[in-house]
Every structure is written in structure tokens, then in C-alpha cells.
Amino acid sequence: MADHLEASVTLPSDPASVCAARTYAIDTLVEWGLAPHTEVADTVRLIVSELATNAVQHTLGQSPTFTVGLELDRDEQLRIGVTDSHPRFPKRLPAAVQQDNGRGLVIIRWLTAECGGRLCVRPTREGGKTVSIELPWKVPARPVPAAGQQES
What is the C-alpha end-to-end distance of the chain, expressed in Å? Predict the structure, then answer.
């Protein structure tokens, strides 16, 4: 594998783009050696879904697109970032009992930490922001069994 791989896709800030972002990220990582039915793949799907959802929901129409970027350095570290053109940084909201949203960053931070990574938010030169995660790249040895299947 090359020392450094990069890929990105720019999508419209539309709820339908969240699925496209997830699919793009997983398809790219599978090309880079990740087995698609693993715990790591499931974690990446959820992280990308939450990052893309935040970019769509919280830019208040001020970012017509968002970009999903993937970088893999020397088979050691994976970076996944979502960039939008809205200047406001994400905020941790108090979780009300009956509130059904506002916990995306908490989920992302927890999943990232559980994998030994970190979450970072940086401003862009154009006045927007990139919310990214960095994870150690550990291609799992065994796939996670699909629902209803047993491990042998």
C-alpha cells in the first residue's frame, strides 16, 4: 500500500447526501483494505453518518455543500473529516430527556475515543470548519458475523 492515500467527495447539503457520504467512505476504505462487515466498518459508518448529518442540519442553509475527506497515512492513521462553509463551530447541547437530537458529537467523541482516536474541529481558510476524527488504522482480522449468523 502507498504511504499516503487521500480521497474526497463533495455532496449537496441535503438529508439524502448522508447515505451517499456513508457509502462513499466505506467503499473507499474497502478499496484500502478494510473488510466491509467488521466492527471498525460499522463504527466508521456511524461516525460518517453523524458528521454528515451535523453538516446538513446545523449549517442552517448557509453551506450549500459539504465535503467528506479521507486520508490514510502509512497504514497507521486514518483521518475522516467533514468540511462545510458555515462558520459556527459545533456546540455540545444539554441533553433534555425528551430531546431526540443534539447528541451527535457526544456519540462521535465516544466512538472515536473507544477506538483510541481523537476528535478535532478546525476553521478553514474560507471561513467554514472541518470536524474530523483521527483513528489508528488497524485492519481487523475477522469480520463481524451478520445478524442471525454464529461465529465458528
Answer: 30
Tell the burial category of 52 from Cβ atoms under 10 Å away from its Cβ (0-12, 13-18, 19+): buried
97-148 pLDDT tens trace: 555 566 778 889 999 999 999 999 999 999 999 999 999 987 644 344 555 5
The length of the chain is: 152
pTM of the model: 0.83
Angle (CA) 131-137-143 rounded to 5° is 110
Query: Taking a C-beta distance cutoff of 8 angstroms, is the pair 23, 7 a contact?
Result: no
CA 51, CA 68: separation in Å to the nearest integer? 9
